[in-house]
């Protein structure tokens, strides 16, 4: 396919749902004028690029401010995900951030809260081990634990990350910490698995792993990495991810990839492309039903289980919405009623769309379950 044959409107829409429009512009602007997208589409890419740069500059200033304030108070903190990974990208500003993620010790919560509030950050929500702040229209998530609680039917990641601070080291004697390379890769793989098993994930998460492999691939201790991944049953999934990274972005020869047939690669890439950055563009009922196929191979039973869990979420899920349930589990029936009323009053259309999808399911959920099983997520 030559640039003349490309449907540039489709490329733009795909890049938009994957939060990559600005990054794609850095490539299309290098094309000869005759091979570039039509002017209107090209200008949309350009606008996305400049908007991405502007937002990245604001986020960078916010990150510097947060780190400065926490260092002044001698509060140990650890940046994770995009705030760290963007430095590995050829154009760092093109790695978009939905929010800024920060880890702290749980015992430092009160000092952290006082420090951030004193610097003008507004606390908007909190749940078990997670606090959300806003400033200048941007969201900052402060965590005291990693919540990859449950991925698939065999995978449990809690134990792997309980000792995450043992793998972190301070930068230049400051109170700002970074994970060592191998542990960071293990976390990214588990985080991708969590999203893929949940609502799905898109190309940006795959790109994150690819840039780490390209940046550190020759220095990573893959024997140690896979020893830890085997403990949480993500070793097969990791090799599948690496194979997809190799197919899309290229990775060093030292990276151990699964021997994946082209047909499965194509199927996986189509699944990722449809999903968007965090899978939000995929029909939500597909993911709800897919997660229940591990309990049964009958679509009607899987739909019934998914419907039940949607109407009556577990205590673990409900306590995030209603923190008081952590201490008063007996209030679950009232919480279910309150949630149901809120959905009917404020999310009526979405609620009925989901329920209708569960009552009249498509075959896509079964196909998605089989695909993820082949990739190593069960």
TrEMBL record:
Any Pfam family the entry gives: NTP_transf_5
Domain of life: Bacteria
InterPro entries: NTP_transf_5
Protein name: Nucleotidyltransferase family protein
Species for this entry: Ethanoligenens harbinense (strain DSM 18485 / JCM 12961 / CGMCC 1.5033 / YUAN-3)
């Amino acid at each position: 396919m030559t640039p003349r044959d490309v449907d540039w409107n489709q490329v733009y829409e795909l890049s938009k749902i994957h939060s990559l429009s600005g990054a794609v512009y850095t490539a299309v602007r290098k094309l000869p004028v005759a091979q570039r997208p039509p002017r209107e589409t090209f200008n949309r890419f350009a606008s996305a690029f400049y908007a991405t740069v502007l937002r990245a500059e604001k986020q960078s200033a916010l990150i510097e401010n947060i780190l400065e304030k926490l260092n002044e108070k001698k509060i140990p903190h650890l940046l994770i995900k995009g705030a760290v990974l963007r430095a590995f990208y050829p154009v760092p500003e093109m790695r978009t951030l939905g929010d800024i993620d920060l880890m702290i010790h749980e015992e430092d919560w009160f000092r952290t809260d006082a420090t951030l509030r004193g610097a003008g950050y507004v606390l908007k929500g909190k749940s078990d081990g997670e606090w959300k702040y806003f400033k200048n229209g941007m969201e900052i998530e402060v965590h005291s634990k990693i919540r990859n609680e449950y991925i698939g039917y065999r995978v449990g990641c809690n134990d792997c990350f309980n000792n995450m601070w043992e793998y972190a080291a301070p930068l230049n004697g400051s109170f700002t910490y970074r994970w060592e390379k191998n542990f960071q890769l293990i976390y990214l793989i588990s985080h991708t698995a969590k999203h893929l098993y949940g609502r799905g994930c898109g190309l940006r998460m795959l790109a994150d792993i690819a840039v780490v492999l390209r940046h550190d691939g020759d220095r990573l201790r893959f024997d140690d990495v896979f020893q830890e991944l085997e403990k949480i049953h993500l070793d097969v999934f990791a090799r599948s991810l690496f194979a997809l990274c190799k197919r899309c972005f290229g990775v060093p020869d030292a990276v151990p990839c699964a021997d994946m047939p082209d047909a499965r690669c194509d199927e996986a890439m189509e699944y990722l492309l449809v999903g968007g950055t965090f899978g939000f563009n995929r029909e939500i009922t597909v993911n709800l039903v897919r997660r229940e196929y591990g309990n049964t191979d009958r679509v009607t039973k899987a739909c019934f289980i998914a419907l039940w869990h949607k109407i009556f979420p577990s205590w673990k899920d409900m306590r995030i919405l209603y923190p008081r349930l952590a201490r008063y589990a007996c209030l679950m029936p009232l919480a279910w009623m309150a949630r149901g009323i809120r959905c009917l009053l404020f999310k009526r259309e979405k609620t009925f769309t989901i329920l209708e999808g569960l009552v009249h399911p498509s075959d896509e959920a079964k196909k998605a379950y089989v695909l993820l099983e082949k990739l190593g997520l069960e």
